[in-house]
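Dear H.,

Thanks for agreeing to be a second pair of eyes. The structure we're designing against is below in token form, covering all 336 positions.
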């Protein structure tokens, strides 16, 4: 993945400046001032087509943007707005505007739980099953029944109830709906990897600077093992995620083994989060459990995000099912 270093530096600077001026809050809401600045910089619709007001960038740039926000513990619905909701509208030939959007897939009873940023959005791109097909509608939040909720780090994860018979929906191809799920899963993998990388850096820095019994923690073999393990797990998660992202981008999200590669990425990310979070808190000791230390901003985020758009068990099962289905030709899932 090659992205202009100047663009990455700018992204990091924007979020670092915002984070320095805004301490973490237990309950997170979309910051309108930050959103306007991101809009002015062309980052709100980074991957949108230029003719429709977007910046015309790709997924590699979007991944760097999400990673920059995660590295600085800035919570904002960039992924839900740009990569999911607005993409779905464009993919289905529907026009949008400057309204802030998120997306949700309704169950058969017309409800959805854990919808990201619903209460703080202007509109929700709603998808639901209509017989053997699906329909999609761009709905004003006032037309939906929304019950606020949150995840482990206080990000909005709301419950939605809708009367689909009253929605002015249009047909959407089932392949587009399947791609939406993979996109959402990969979004969370990118965000978790950024959090894990930050945790690794914090653990290395703490072990090098903290002195116990007359020498740095990094000189103790047990601590070295903890850091080696968490660094290896974070690297594996990142490699699997980058492989899935590269496959998706280079094949236009259309190759037959993409689902398998996303499943592998999410499985690796989920299991890595357990090891990295546990080991990092052991390395940091009691100071790492305090609210004042920044470690929790990343460990809790990793644990929260790894279970969204599919649990760790769900993605483990997807890897297993794909492998068994491939039989003797399992190498094609990996090499093609």
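And this is the sequence the design step returned. I haven't edited it by hand at all.
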């Amino acid at each position: 993945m090659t992205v202009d270093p100047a663009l990455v530096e700018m992204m990091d600077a924007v979020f670092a400046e915002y984070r320095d001026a805004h301490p973490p809050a237990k309950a997170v809401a979309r910051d309108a001032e930050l959103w306007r600045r991101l809009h002015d910089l062309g980052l709100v619709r980074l991957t949108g087509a230029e003719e429709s007001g977007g910046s015309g960038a790709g997924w590699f740039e979007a991944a760097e943007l999400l990673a920059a926000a995660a590295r600085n513990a800035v919570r904002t619905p960039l992924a839900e707005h740009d990569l999911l909701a607005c993409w779905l509208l464009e993919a289905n030939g529907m026009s949008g505007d400057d309204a802030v959007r998120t997306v949700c897939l309704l169950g058969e009873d017309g409800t959805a739980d854990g919808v990201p940023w619903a209460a703080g959005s202007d509109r929700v791109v709603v998808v639901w099953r209509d017989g053997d097909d699906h329909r999609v509608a761009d709905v004003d939040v006032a037309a939906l029944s929304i019950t606020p909720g949150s995840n482990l780090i206080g990000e909005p994860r709301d419950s939605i109830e809708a009367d689909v018979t009253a929605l002015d929906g249009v047909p959407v191809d089932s392949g587009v709906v399947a791609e939406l799920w993979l996109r959402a899963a990969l979004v969370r993998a990118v965000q978790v990897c950024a959090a894990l990388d930050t945790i690794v850096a914090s653990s290395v820095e703490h072990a090098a600077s903290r002195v116990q019994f007359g020498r740095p923690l990094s000189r103790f073999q047990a601590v070295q093992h903890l850091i080696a393990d968490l660094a290896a797990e974070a690297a594996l998660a990142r490699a699997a995620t980058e492989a899935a992202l590269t496959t998706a981008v280079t094949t236009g999200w259309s190759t037959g083994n993409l689902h398998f590669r996303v499943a592998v990425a999410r499985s690796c990310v989920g299991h890595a989060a357990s090891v990295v979070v546990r080991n990092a808190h052991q390395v940091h000791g009691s100071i790492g459990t305090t609210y004042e230390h920044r470690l929790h901003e990343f460990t809790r985020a990793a644990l929260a995000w790894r279970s969204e758009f599919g649990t760790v068990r769900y993605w483990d099962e997807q890897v297993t099912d794909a492998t068994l289905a491939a039989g003797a030709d399992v190498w094609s899932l990996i090499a093609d």
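Two observations from my side: The radius of gyration is 20 Å. The chain is about 55% helix and 10% strand.

Warmly,
E.
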